[in-house]
């Protein structure tokens, strides 16, 4: 357990597909030799920029006085919206997201002024000297206020199937309730950064920590008012992204480029941690209201679900995020009659954005709460109610009319229930709690079904370049995907090594670069290896086909008798030459040793107005059992043990997949326990540093953590080597932690009533739930 | 900020900061007093392996190891380069992630190898910091258990891995180190407890180079941004402090550093207490007198020997790099309402020894705090020592910390309860809280409800109710006023349950807190 093992040794010789090889940059990471944007040796004359930020949640800007800024030591320039040569906008879908505030400010922390100075410190000190005269406007700071004032960034969307009202009215049991789900700061360790270096003839090269260099390129071109072909964006690696660099890297990229163009000097803009958390968007927090009708077995007959999310001041990616939330509000459960209403609330706070799961976790948590409440209403084990509601034969249609054809959560559940010893432990915990008045334990098992593909169908395409150098037969791979730690570059290199029959040591991956592979989609939606792996596979196969044809002719063997393996090419049974030799011969015979590959995901389509169609190529599945303890005097909690079984299909790299599962689970646990975003009354986010915003540390992870890849996993769809995406789905395994806490709280009223526990389950939230439940129990 | 000029070699004299890096002496002149070690590494030396993640000592991406020669030994401590001012390195040796590869062969260090092979890095940005925290552990603890590893890593955040592979690597690194051929096992590679000849020679060489940097005279580094003074005697320190009342006193810099890196303040002259030998001592003969320059880690060890009940609180006090740099006196003098040491110290009746020029006085710690971040320190006065009294007979004592995250967080509420029991009767009660008022403060009404009473459930309830008279806490991002008061009362109840033996960590006994659970379940 927890020991990554190569799944198919015969396939995986020397680091091919299925081998548990380490991250391609591991040796650089540990030596401090991996280059991040801030580590690039600065070009001569490099200047540093910092933003001056809005101090009001919503106000008209009466005037901006930059005299003190410009007089500060080291300052070279101080720019406002009017100084932007092109379009003042970085909105990815709607154009509603200014680079620098113009006319009004819409949240505390919005960039208003861009200060450029000789040093980082000079820029940051001077940025605070801007004097902005505001005229306050009414501000909307919470989801409730936004709902009351019908303040939305996008129109409300309803996803419905069947007659939910009739089903609810006819149901033998009914449960209504609400749940508050907190947001989450991405807290990538490397903050947002861009380094813009002016090039000849109006060109601009931007090194940007971004999941989407292609978008950054176009945003920069528009901000500068130059054609796209003048701008190149490059990203070798990010120090973490988690969705927080899908669109949020565009702002520093544009700002640095604007300053660099204006001053004719390289400009670097690196947010410090406070600015980063203050400026950038986070996971949407949600307010959920539900009305569920169900039968004696806990089967849902009808459901109305209202999902209202904080989108912040602009649309950003809130449309697709909320679509995905609605489309994951079924999780693994068949909802015969359902209406899901999705409100996209506009608030005067940071513009909420992508974060691992992209709305899916919130939708999933909503339905898991409903299931848990049904179980507690009926006095049943929530596990039974989950199972009773699973998709299955004749019950396989999602609310968005896609059939679930690859359902395996039932099998995962059965295996994990056994291997985790769930039933016996649950009984033992109940017994133990009776004797322990202060510390209470709880256990919960929850499933995950996560749809794989961008819901925006056009995003599901990718391209790659594979070069073979004739001198030594080494391979250079480039694709549109970005490396943020998830191991994408390692996996795609493994795919290419496999196709060409060469060792992984012969394949090098170079930085994502809009000048090499254009029009690449964001590395997001867990799609990185599905898309780029297939594209790179196609390119490698093209080269292999050319080499095969050439070798067949040159050596007079049938093409089918030629095999690529172990850095060699077998030419029938008799002759064998090295891959490098063949590359050299092919070059001299004028065979092209470079190819591009392209992939688009088949089968998918989707109507964004009705949310109907087949938005997903397939589903990824997992299940987790968490056992926790809580202190009913203080509300403190601790995860004691977690058992996870996750389906990654046929793993491309079990070590990397295990890392995604463990890391996602712990990140999800942070979202649901210790990570709390707290805005003050004036709309100022007060949790803007690690001193106040608490992500998990080593001691939060239980010693008893049992994680396994599902040995029978296989993608029924034709994905790359039948693997499954793994980036986002494991995050939602942590819902089991929240529900285990809820189970522990329920014990204080002997499980006769259900606790009201919102997320995150901070000590304060848990103590509140304990005391509220006790008060309710005493009142009866 | 003007770039500091630096030269290598032992010369550089009285106007340069001198320290050892990778076996060479760096002498840095014209250095601003608040230039951080991280800025120096990244901007001046181009050593970019050390990262900035938060600039406040809370994420650990900037972790480096600093070594000193003290008590005949080379000591290694992990520290946060982001808030450590460069001049404080004077006389010390610095190790960064780039220092670890074997210089002859280029091989990765066992710590690095274990992390790389064990899939302990994903995005890699936090990794250099983990490498350095683990390197410090590797060189100081021969066989840490899982809890010790977690504690060593409490100041390092990783957002990718979920920590399991990193904690595992902390075990395998020892096996890799011990398996190295003797020729490849120099001082850097030899784990704690392995004394090879090469390792011994390496340590002696380091000690010698550190010895060459020892100054007899005090240091004063003038710079347009301010002068960095590092006196060597108490008298000199007190004289400087009296002469320059506007200069900032600097001890560990774990708070002052943030004024620079987060508030972007310019601090002018700094007087650094870290080189005053007399203030680097702990005298625990009877009372425990802790000098103002003693790192928290050492102060905590001395206090916990006398008061083991403080073990958990002091282990959870910030993180190892912060405890290695920060001082107890700094925590006390800083006067934050949420400092973790003060409630316990006040409950134990600790005093502060103050000095202004030649005039010395002592104050009870609770009298030191006048208001929000206001203390009784007179202009030109400094905290010389913190004095923790000897343990009275019959003392029942506990200190509890509540925070959103168990490790390395700032308290929402910090409580300390000290009762002297005679028979079942409470002869004396000292109760103090942090996070409940503008200063760390005693709970007078609560104490009055306890004093003279029997230590019963009813007394506990009366005392808990009295806390509502003692405190009107505020709501902020750490907790609401309601929670703070409620939980303050509940902590008193926990103390009662624990001290009366109703709950605890005995086999078969129901636990009183999460930390006792392991024993209870075993």
Specify the CATH class of the domain at 406-453 and 616-780 in chain A: Alpha Beta
CATH architecture title of the domain at 406-453 and 616-780 in chain A: 2-Layer Sandwich
Number of helical stretches of at least 4 residues of chain A: 19
Overall spatial form of chain A: globular
Find the CATH topology of the domain at 406-453 and 616-780 in chain A: Aldehyde Oxidoreductase, domain 4
Number of domains of chain B: 3
Characterise this structure.
The complex is a heterodimer of chains A (780) and B (522). Chain A is an alpha+beta fold. Among the domains of chain A are: 13-34 and 461-600, Aldehyde oxidase/xanthine dehydrogenase, molybdopterin binding domain (Aldehyde Oxidoreductase, domain 4), CATH 3.30.365; 406-453 and 616-780, Aldehyde oxidase/xanthine dehydrogenase, molybdopterin binding domain (Aldehyde Oxidoreductase, domain 4, 2-Layer Sandwich). In chain A, 29% of the residues lie in helices and 25% in strands. Chain A contains 19 helices and 29 strands. In chain A, the strands form seven sheets. Chain A has an eight-stranded mixed beta sheet with strand order 3-5-1-12-9-10-11-20, with helices on both faces. In chain A, strands 7-15-14-13-8 form a five-stranded mixed beta sheet, with helices on both faces. Chain A has a four-stranded mixed beta sheet with strand order 16-27-28-29, sandwiched between helices. In chain A, strand 25 (605-607) and strand 26 (612-614) form a beta hairpin. In chain A, helix 6 crosses helix 7 (250-263) and helix 9 packs parallel to helix 10 (360-378). The longest helix of chain A is centred in the last third of the chain and has 28 residues, at 528-555. Chain A is globular. Chain A starts with 25 loop residues before the first helix and ends with a helix. The mean pLDDT of chain A is 97. With 522 residues, chain B is an alpha+beta fold. Chain B folds into three domains: 5-212, Beta-grasp domain (Ubiquitin-like (UB roll), Roll); 231-388, Uridine Diphospho-n-acetylenolpyruvylglucosamine Reductase, domain 3; 395-518, Enolase-like, domain 1 (2-Layer Sandwich). Chain B is built from 18 helices and 21 strands. Chain B has helices at 37-44, 110-117, 127-140, 146-152, 164-179, 197-212, 234-243, 256-261, 296-306, 311-315, 320-325, 328-334, 342-347, 365-368, 444-450, 457-470, 481-499, 517-521; strands at 5-8, 16-21, 24-29, 63-70, 73-80, 93-95, 219-221, 228-230, 248-250, 270-272, 282-283, 288-291, 351-356, 359-364, 369-371, 374-375, 382-388, 395-402, 413-422, 425-434, 441-442. In chain B, the strands form five sheets. A six-stranded mixed beta sheet of chain B has the order 1-3-2-6-4-5. The mean pLDDT of chain B is 94.
